[in-house]
Structures are given as C-alpha cells and as structure tokens.
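pinging the channel bc i need a second pair of eyes. not urgent but kinda urgent?? the chain im working w is below, pasted from the shared doc
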Amino acid sequence: MTLPTPTLETERLRLRPFADGDADALFALNSDAYVLRYWDSPPWTDRSSIERFMAGCRRMEEEGTGARVAIERTSDQMFVGWCTFNSWDPDFKSASLGYCFTQSSWGHGYATESARAVLGWAFDTLDLNRVQSETDTRNVASARVLEKLGFEREGTLREDCIVNGDVSDSWVYGLLRRDWER
C-alpha cells in the first residue's frame, strides 16, 4: 500500500514532497551541528547523505509507512525545515512524528503550524489512534511545541542516545485521537 506524500497549505507555510532543488538547503540544515545538538544522529558531513534521505522519503511513500515533507514559507518560498510522519502501523493504528528546522526559522511558530497540518492530514487520512514523538530532555523548545499540539509527556527514556560521546535522555510524548479531536 502506498501513502502519497501530501501537499498541505497553512496560513504561512507550504508543506510538500521533497524535490531535487531542495538538496542544498537540506544539506545545510542537516549539517548544522548547532541545530542537531539534540538530535539522535550526528550532523551530515558529506553530500551522499542527501540521496539517502531522499531515498528514505520515497521508500516511506512506496511502503505506506509514512510521509516526510519539505516546509517552505509561502511569502518567499524559503526552505525552513521538514516534518516527518513515520512508522505508520495500521495494525496498531500508531505512528511517530518528528521535525527539524533551520536556526533562522526558530521562534516563529513554524514547527507548531506545520506539525499541526501534518497531524490533521494523518488523523483525517488514516485510521490513526496514537502518535508518538520523542525529544531530548534538554530541548525545551521542542517539548513546548509538542505540548501546544496536545501531546502529553508519558515518560523518560534514560540515556537512550549517545551521539559523538554525548549521553542524553529523551522524553516520550503521546497524542491520542480523542485528545486531538477535542
């Protein structure tokens, strides 16, 4: 079963499938050590990572396991980040949500706005009951985004990530359909 990657419009953003023209902006974002300081993998160091990322986008769509969208501002078509809805499991009616944004786009509400659009699409399109997301416990801004969206903090995964020798904990958040529909 395929799951076509949606194109979604919000008040200020356009969420769309990745295109070849996104390669430079995508590499700049995913190679920024400051942006990825709370990520579960190190920053990209070579451009071959772009093709692996794009292949992963295609594979999610073809296998029906999720969708990853590029996010651009509608005012100037500037790439500001990406959002992913992945690990879709139709038997458990569950999936995961993640996002990554350029430093210059932080503090403008783009993460909340785009994640809300992706969640709306997912709850409307799929027989979805639960979405999970995880964030490094030091990433208070990401935790706030999830809480604004209605996610509840459900627990802490102790020392679950070691990236470049840095050990960190993660908070697990969950959002249920009944909470989304309120």
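so The mean pLDDT is 95. and Strands lie at 8-9, 13-17, 67-73, 79-89, 94-101, 130-136, 152-163, 166-176. — does that match what u expected or am i reading it wrong
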